[in-house]
Structures are given as structure tokens and as C-alpha cells.
Design a protein that fits this description.
Blueprint: H1 3-7, H2 18-27, H3 33-37, E1 43-46, E2 61-75, E3 83-90, E4 95-101, H4 106-109, E5 115-125, E6 128-132, E7 135-139, H5 144-150, E8 154-157, H6 166-180, H7 190-196, H8 201-209, H9 214-245, H10 255-264, H11 271-285, E9 291-296, H12 302-315, E10 319-323, H13 327-341, E11 350-353, H14 359-370, E12 376-379, E13 393-399, H15 406-411, E14 420-425, H16 431-437, E15 442-446, E16 457-461, H17 466-478, E17 482-486, H18 501-510, E18 518-521, H19 527-538, E19 544-547, E20 560-566, H20 573-580, E21 591-595, H21 601-612, H22 616-627, H23 652-668, H24 678-687, H25 692-695
Parallel strand pairs: 4-6, 9-14, 9-15, 10-12, 10-13, 11-12, 13-14, 16-21, 17-19, 17-20, 18-19, 20-21
Antiparallel strand pairs: 1-8, 2-3, 2-5, 3-4, 5-6, 5-7
Helix pairs in contact: 8-9, 9-23, 10-12, 11-12, 21-22
């Protein structure tokens, strides 16, 4: 068995694992020995010197070591079937109570006289110190190996669940490192490690799990972060090189015709739109294919810039494909663009292609596109169907690109010969993250809202003030406005104490808002049903729309001036900002009301940020700080989930160095075929399988 194969051995066969534990470990993404090496600690505890109980500080997260001396369980008098488990812990300086809610199994774990370590937020309750639902470890101080791993050192703490304890996991990592670390292959060439002053991989993995001190842990962290950025940057460098080497379309711009269109609009372009348009025109006139990301906050006017780009292409005899994530958005774009182009002196044939189109109409449209009779087609995923062929595709526009997978985004440009590509997003992306994900794209930013937009007023209310909020909604509806009410889940759950959209819709329709017209949209409804309800709301047939987050990519309803988000602390910051973008689209003062009871530090940070900030890019930076890069788009954004330890916002200098080294490597060895680069190629194929073909081009 080769060294590589040994590291790919299933975790199940390691001593002390077996089938049952391997199933739990699989939930963490750990299936092989190598996966175990790369399952990094989420934090460390300095157990060389514990905080004594008498020195604990309220409202801070701290680690204590003590002895259990009283334990007990009681039922909650407020909620039926709800239990509270409490125990007292003491050290030489004082005592503190630890409390867990509805976890009765814990009473079997703890015994009086046990040595324990607790980590959690220190509170004061009825005059005494308390730590709620702390992370804990029960120590066996007779076990010398266990003591050496868990006491008197910097101790790693991992993200684990019930069934795998910290102590067991540390021991598993330690034994596996002892047995297999010598088998690991070093993927970074020696000259790169020397130039960048990096530890080798084996040293780094040992010291990220069991660091001797803070300094060596930081060196290990920097090395592993560099490696992640480096491997992320190679496909980016390859894509950029591929684009540079391709022969694209040098569009000829009819400036008179373009000026005629811009002057026919019932608004003036902002200076930010004009700047971005100049960048796009320069790209489209170049013989290399355009690959540009257009970022702009909700309502900043990205679509009209895309339409002007489409007119440049179609007036020169090229076809344009405009892909959006939902049918309702496709319909909205179709209607708006139809109005904008009907006054033009040159006719532009516009079409709408969605999956709900009748088959005979779809086949007719396919034929017209294939014959070049359609200049601009707006559609959903239906645009990437294999049987759809273009006669002369010159520009691809992809709206809300993160709603599509990497492979889906790649399919549409393949329907032409190196067409220009304009990708749009209303999710503002911090510069640091843009460099990481979109390093192969040129980036344009519309950082200015059209004049006359009335800023949305954002307020936070506790749940007990909901009746006031409902009265406010009624008042606004009587003035002729409309409102959204958003819930985090569709149906009630035994595990989550959250209000659900379905139940609240029924209650509000029959109770508080019985004299008003209500509709509901959520992800389990058919696309046709969602679209019909949203169109009814847009056309003023409904006063209130009850919804879940499907509203994020919604429609423009200028008359909607109130948005209420219940359990707002359960939503991500970017989500809250996107939802808030549904209002403030008309001339009326709009109100975003957050019903929230944030408890965790992250939830408090999110609510504070959304209520005090309105700039999408500022919010995005804050969101990245709170969530970290791997979660910024969720796991669907392939590649970001590969950044297990690297953080673009705090390690921009490492990211830049890794990108420079990746670009240099690709320029020297385009196909990574030299003997020293074969390890890189193998790792790249394994980590980013969809990019294998990039190395074989050219």
C-alpha cells in the first residue's frame, strides 16, 4: 500500500473507532486518516493556569477547573415536561453553579467528587455566579496519558457532538499522528516554503493539534492557511490564464444608438453606473473575452447596466442570454426591459424562456433562437438545457450568480464561442473575499444608490411588543401601503421553539388581520403557486404577504413599505440585509421591524449591525467577521468550504503571497507536469475535481 493510500484508509479500522463511532465521525466529514489530520481545533484552552472561581468575570467566556460537590434535577414550573439539571463546582477559592436545560441524561454522567473542566459564559443569577450550558470535560487524573493531553498545556478544543468526547478525540488524534504522520506527503515545493518561511506539513499538523506554545501554533496556522489559499488560487490562476489566451469578440459600439437608449430612460444614470459602464464597454471592445463581476447593493441599478451591455452586443448582430434564478425575476426583467427597448430606432427581439412554458411554445422559441431571430433571451435554468442552441451568442449575463452552482454557471457560456460574460450579484462581497473566490474575474462595483431613495428605518422590538407592531401594520395598510411578515421556518418543530409561517398565517388571517387580504409563500409551494401569490401582492390584490426566506430573491413592489422579521436573531446578516432590500423601493418612508431576542454574542452582533448599518458592503465586512469565510455563502459555494483554517479577512497578506506563488507556478509549468509539481496536481484533482480540465487546456 502506497503512503497516499495509507492516509486514505477508512477511519473505522483505527484502534478504538469501529463502525459505530466511524458513523458519528462521518457526520463531521471525517472518513479517512487524512480527514482526521485536517479536522482542526476551533479554539485552545490555556490549561497551564486556570482562572480561579473567585476571579471569574461576569459576561465573559472563561475556563475553570473544579470538583463536583452537589448535583440535582428539578422540573420547570413554567413549562410542562421541561427539566433543569444543576450541579455545584468548587475550587479552593469559591463555588459556582452550572445549569443545563432539558438534558436529563447528564445526571448519569456526573458524580460527586469528580474533577471537571467547564467553559462558558459567566452570569450572575439571584446574587450567585452561574454558568449556563457550559462545555465540559470530566477528568481522570489517574490516567497519565490523559493528563498529559488535557492538563498543563495549550489544549485543543474541537467541534464535536454527543457520542464523541473531547478527551476521546484528543487521544484518537494523538495516536493517529504518532502512527501515520510520517506517511504524509509534502505538497508545497521546498523553494516556496523557503521563500515564504513556512514550516513543513508534518510539523504544522502536529503543532496545530498539540502546540508546544502559542508561537509555534501561530507558525503552524500560517503554514496551513497559506496551503489552503495556494490550492484555492491555482484554479483561479488557470482560469485567468485560459481567458487571456482565448480569442473573444471585439464588439463594435454604435455610440449614437447607445446614447439614444440612455437618453430615452426616465432616469439619469448615477456616476457609479457610468463608471462601471465605461469598464464594461472597454472589455467588450477588447478581442479577449470579458469575464466581469458586477457588484451592487439592492436597488443600485445593476440591471439597467446589464441591459445597456446587451444592447451593445445585440446592435452588433450578436445574441444575448440573460439567466436569473427564479421565474418571477425572469418575468420582472422581461417586462421592465420590454418597456425600456420599445422606443428604440433599431428593433431588438426579446424572448422569455422558463420551464413553465408550454412544450410547443418552447420548441418554437428554441427554433427561433437557433435561427438567430431572437436577439435577447431572458430565462431561468431553462437556458442551460442541452437542446437549446444559439446561432451567434455574444454575451452571457448571470444574475444572482451564487444561486447557481459552479458547473451550472459554466454551461451557458459554452453555448457560444468565448462570449463575453457579465456576472451580477446584489450580495455585496468584501474585497478580501472577492479576491479569494473571484480572482479570475475583473470586478466592478456600483457603490451609489439612485437619488431620491428614502432610507429604510430599522427598529428592533422584543416579542412582547408584537401587538404594537401589528397595529402599526394596520395603520400603514389603511394609508394604502402593503406589508411583508417573515418567519424563519415553514412548520412548527419539536426541536425549535420558533413561530412558523404556516401556523402564523392561519392565525393572523383568522384573528389579528381578519379584515385584511393575506397571502403566503414558502419553499415547499410549487414555483407556479409562489409566483402567482407574489404577482397578486405586486398587483395590489393582497395587503400582507407572509413568507419565509424565499422572499430574499423577490420582486420589486414599490408600494410595500413595512417588513416585519420575526425571530430576527435566527437569520444571517446578509439574509437580513437582502430581506430588507424588498422594501424602500418607492417614494414612501419604509420600515424594517425586527422582532428579536438575541442571546449569543454572534446574534447580538448581527442585530446590532443590521439596525445601525445600511451600506451593504459595510454589512458584508461585518458578516464576514462574525461568520468567517467558510460560511459566508454557505457550503453550496464550492471551494469556500475548503477554507477550513484560512481566513481572508484576517490573513489578506498570506492570501496575496499565496496567489503570487500560484500565478508564478502556473506561468512556469502550465500543466503542472514537472516531477516536483505532480503532488500539487494530484491534490488539486482531488480537491477541485471540476477544474481538472483547466490544466489540460493549451
Amino acid at each position: 500500500m502506497s503512503q497516499e493510500n495509507k492516509l486514505n484508509s477508512p477511519i473505522q479500522y483505527l484502534k478504538g473507532v469501529g463502525p459505530k463511532r466511524s458513523k458519528i465521525l462521518k457526520n463531521f466529514g471525517i472518513e479517512t486518516i487524512e480527514d482526521l489530520f485536517y479536522y482542526f481545533p476551533r479554539r485552545y484552552e490555556d490549561r497551564t493556569n486556570f482562572v480561579s472561581i473567585s476571579q471569574l468575570k461576569e459576561k465573559e467566556y472563561q475556563t475553570i477547573k473544579g470538583e463536583v460537590f452537589i448535583k440535582g434535577e428539578r422540573k420547570s414550573w413554567r413549562r410542562r415536561g421541561f427539566s433543569i439539571f444543576q450541579l455545584m463546582v468548587r475550587d479552593k477559592t469559591g463555588k459556582i453553579s452550572a445549569v443545563w436545560f432539558n438534558q436529563p441524561y447528564l445526571k448519569k454522567l456526573f458524580k460527586n467528587g469528580q474533577s471537571v473542566i467547564f467553559y462558558g459564559r459567566i452570569e450572575r443569577y439571584e446574587g450567585a455566579l452561574q454558568i449556563n450550558s457550559p462545555e465540559f470535560e470530566i477528568l481522570d487524573e489517574k490516567d497519565k496519558e490523559e493528563e498529559s493531553l488535557n492538563l498543563g498545556r495549550m489544549v485543543p478544543v474541537y467541534s464535536l457532538s454527543e457520542g464523541i468526547s473531547q478527551r476521546y478525540f484528543r487521544k484518537l488524534i494523538k495516536h493517529t499522528l504518532d502512527d501515520f504522520i510520517s506517511k504524509i506527503q509534502e505538497p508545497l515545493p521546498y523553494d516556496i516554503r523557503k521563500r515564504q518561511d513556512l514550516l513543513n506539513l508534518a510539523q504544522s499538523i502536529i503543532n496545530i493539534h498539540f502546540p508546544e506554545d502559542k508561537a509555534i501554533q501561530q507558525k503552524a496556522y500560517q503554514r496551513l492557511a497559506f496551503e489552503e489559499f495556494f490550492f484555492y488560487s491555482i484554479p483561479v490562476a488557470l482560469r485567468k490564464l485560459n481567458t487571456k489566451q482565448k480569442q473573444g469578440i471585439a464588439h463594435k459600439i454604435d455610440e449614437i444608438f447607445l446614447t439614444q437608449f440612455i437618453q430615452s430612460l426616465n432616469f439619469r444614470l448615477t456616476s457609479a453606473q457610468e463608471r462601471v459602464l465605461a469598464e464594461i464597454k472597454k472589455d467588450m471592445q477588447s478581442p479577449q473575452p470579458m469575464h466581469r463581476l458586477l457588484q451592487g447593493d439592492v436597488g443600485s441599478g445593476k440591471t439597467v447596466v446589464a441591459v445597456i451591455s446587451a444592447i451593445i452586443a445585440s446592435s452588433g448582430g450578436w445574441q444575448v442570454a440573460f439567466m436569473v434564478p427564479t421565474e418571477i425575476l425572469a418575468n420582472q426583467h422581461y417586462e421592465n426591459i420590454q418597456k425600456q427597448i420599445k422606443r428604440l430606432s433599431k428593433k431588438i427581439n426579446l424572448a422569455l424562456l422558463t420551464s413553465s412554458l408550454e412544450d410547443k411554445d418552447k420548441q418554437k422559441l428554441y427554433r427561433e433562437i437557433r435561427e438567430g431571430k431572437i436577439d435577447l433571451v431572458i430565462g431561468t435554468h431553462a437556458l442551460i438545457q442541452e437542446e437549446l442552441k444559439f446561432k451567434k451568442l455574444g454575451l452571457v449575463v448571470i444574475d444572482e450568480q451564487h444561486k447557481f452552482g459552479v458547473s451550472q454557471r459554466a454551461l451557458l457560456p459554452k453555448k457560444g464561442t468565448n462570449p463575453d460574460v457579465l456576472i451580477m450579484t446584489a450580495t455585496p462581497i468584501p474585497r478580501t473575499l472577492s479576491m479569494t473566490i473571484y480572482g479570475d474575474l475583473d470586478i466592478s462595483v456600483i457603490d451609489q444608490l439612485p437619488p431620491g431613495r428614502v432610507p429604510v428605518e430599522t427598529q428592533v422590538f422584543p416579542e412582547e411588543r408584537i401587538p404594537e407592531v401589528h397595529d402599526f401594520i394596520k395603520e400603514k395598510i389603511k394609508e394604502g401601503r402593503q406589508a411583508y411578515i417573515v418567519y424563519p421556518i415553514i412548520e412548527e418543530s419539536d426541536f425549535l421553539e420558533l413561530k412558523a409561517a404556516q401556523k402564523m398565517y392561519d392565525e393572523l388571517r383568522k384573528g389579528t388581520f381578519k379584515d385584511f387580504r393575506l397571502g403566503m409563500v414558502h419553499g415547499r409551494l410549487s414555483r407556479q403557486k409562489q409566483d402567482k401569490t407574489m404577482m397578486d401582492f405586486k398587483n395590489g390584490k393582497l395587503d400582507i404577504l407572509v413568507a419565509t426566506t424565499v422572499l430574499e430573491v423577490g420582486i420589486d413592489v414599490a408600494n410595500a413599505s413595512v417588513l416585519v422579521i420575526e425571530h430576527a436573531e435566527r437569520f444571517g446578516l446578509a439574509q437580513l440585509h437582502q430581506l430588507r432590500g424588498r422594501i424602500g423601493r418607492g417614494q414612501y418612508q419604509s420600515y424594517c421591524i425586527l422582532i428579536a431576542n438575541p442571546q449569543s454574542p454572534d446574534a447580538i452582533s448581527r442585530i446590532n449591525a443590521i439596525s445601525s448599518m445600511s451600506d451593504g458592503f459595510q454589512i458584508a465586512e461585518e458578516d464576514l467577521k462574525i461568520r468567517g469565510p467558510g460560511e459566508f455563502f454557505g457550503q453550496r459555494q464550492h471551494g469556500l468550504s475548503e477554507l477550513k483554517i484560512a481566513n481572508p479577512i484576517t490573513q489578506l497578506n498570506i492570501l496575496q503571497k499565496a496567489r503570487e506563488e500560484a500565478m508564478k507556478l502556473i506561468e512556469q509549468d502550465r500543466n503542472l507536469s514537472s516531477r516536483t509539481n505532480l503532488v500539487i496536481r494530484e491534490k488539486l484533482n482531488k480537491t477541485f475535481p471540476e477544474f481538472q480540465d483547466l490544466m489540460l487546456v493549451g
